[in-house]
Amino acid sequence: MGIPSERIERLLTLAREAVVDGEYDRSREYVALARRIAERNRCGLPADFSRRTCDDCDVYLRPGKTGRVRLRPGRVVVRCRECGSTARYPFE
């Protein structure tokens, strides 16, 4: 685990804490910064990080607060309450 990976993990925890405190703009900044670090260093984002953030508005998704999670047959549907975008993930 290199320095960029450590920074991305730290930014994930900071984004989570910012959403808990109700600071959605700060959370967006942390997520955008983590994405830029991953692009610049070509290390990629962890799978849980990309599923816990909205691809359109970069807010950290927390069920019940900024995201809506629904189970459908064969998939999980996650909807962002900030911008309304929907992501679907396969599930068995």
From TrEMBL:
Single GO term (MF): zinc ion binding
InterPro entries in the cross-refs: RNP4 (IPR016432), Rpr2/Snm1/Rpp21 (IPR007175)
Top-rank taxon: Archaea
Cofactor: binding details: Binds 1 zinc ion per subunit.
Family annotation (Pfam families): Rpr2 (PF04032)
Binding-site list for Zn(2+): C54, C57, C80, C83
Locations listed in the record: Cytoplasm
Plastid among keywords: no
Stretch forming the signal peptide: none
Catalytic activity, EC: 3.1.26.5
Entry GO terms, CC: cytoplasm; ribonuclease P complex
Annotated keywords: Cytoplasm, Endonuclease, Hydrolase, Metal-binding, Nuclease, tRNA processing, Zinc
Gene3D superfamilies reported for this sequence: 6.20.50.20, Immunoglobulin FC, subunit C
GO BP annotations listed: tRNA 5'-leader removal
Catalytic activity annotation: Endonucleolytic cleavage of RNA, removing 5'-extranucleotides from tRNA precursor
Function per UniProt: Part of ribonuclease P, a protein complex that generates mature tRNA molecules by cleaving their 5'-ends.
Assembly and oligomerization: Consists of a catalytic RNA component and at least 4-5 protein subunits.
HAMAP family, sorted: RNase_P_4 (MF_00757)
Listed name of the protein: Ribonuclease P protein component 4
